[in-house]
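Sample entry (396 residues):
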Amino acid sequence: MEEKRLVIVGTAHVSKRSVEEVAEVIEREKPDAVAVELCPRRYHALVHGQREEISVADVIRKGNVFMLLFQLILAYFQRKVGEETGVKPGSEMLAAIEKAREAGADVLLIDRDIGLTFTRFWQKLTFVEKIKLIFHLVRSTFSGDEIEVDEMLEEDVLDMLVKEFRKISPNAAKVLIDERDVYMAANLLNALSRYNRIVAVVGAGHRKGIEEALLKLKENPVNLRELEEVKKGRSYFKIFMGAFTALIVGTFILIATSLNTEVLVQAFLYWFLINGVLSAVGASLARGHPLSIVTAFLCAWMTSLNPLVAAGWVSGLVEAWIRKPTVEDFSKLVEAESLREMMQNKFFRVLLVAALTNVGSMIGTIYGGWYIISTFGVDVAKVVGERVVEVIGGLL
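Predicted structure, serialized as tokens:
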């Protein structure tokens, strides 16, 4: 029986040297199969140029605006790095697939579905981690500093980058790196039961983790279904905002029952203006249509009191109704060369209007609530106590 052999090639996704190394290793090893860090969806997009059609209205309704914006900025960053090196993102994977076909080897898609990965990734991030990640990514993308891609392949530099990523967002590192390392390692072990010689082409950031996972999985196999589950986790930020909203509602009730109608109207006016102005500012910063800005201003006071609806959803849908972004707009967005070009894109503009309106509304909710409570001398302990009594009474 021929001895089993697995060779793992760690690559930079936008490095010419990586493309050459992949071809050399496959020619030298003459494998039965070539495993690549791709899922079926990414494979079809890379090989056949098939992009999934995305409805901006569905993105807004499902509350995935920030996640899609993150993906777009990440893709833009990777493409800009590729332009500096003269190599398109994914070229090393295409080289591996082409060389596998030339050698008569099977192509194995060992990565987890990209949609599952991003969904799990976004669900596990805290609100602060989301802000930190987007900030670091935007800063890196538009800083203008040159990136030495080939240096990223050096082990010590790579370890440093992974450690920095874990500092910024431990949860993101676990989903985007650790889980996928285990997932790909498990698929490679399964493949070794069918093939004698395999060359695996993966990102340099995954090689070390996959090698460690292979050793562990031989003794403790993993159930891949557990890594494919998308659970509805609790969002502590949403719980906080929900509790804060309940506090505001209780404040209005207390004002209505303890003070005169004039004071209640005054408190409501403050709430309306603070929420409306800050939400409208967010829509304006996104260069939204005047009707979207007015919509953000008028609906923010109400959506801030309703945890099921966000102001950005409403203004974003109005922006989509006016701009009418198409699949072609999304395709152009993916290929945008600059931030200015992205801002001129209808699809991106709708997403940005929805996102920044929500940011303005969130700030307005917190600041507006604090202003009303402090201005009208509301006894917060009394309001909370009454709400707790009501909840307990409803349960009994």
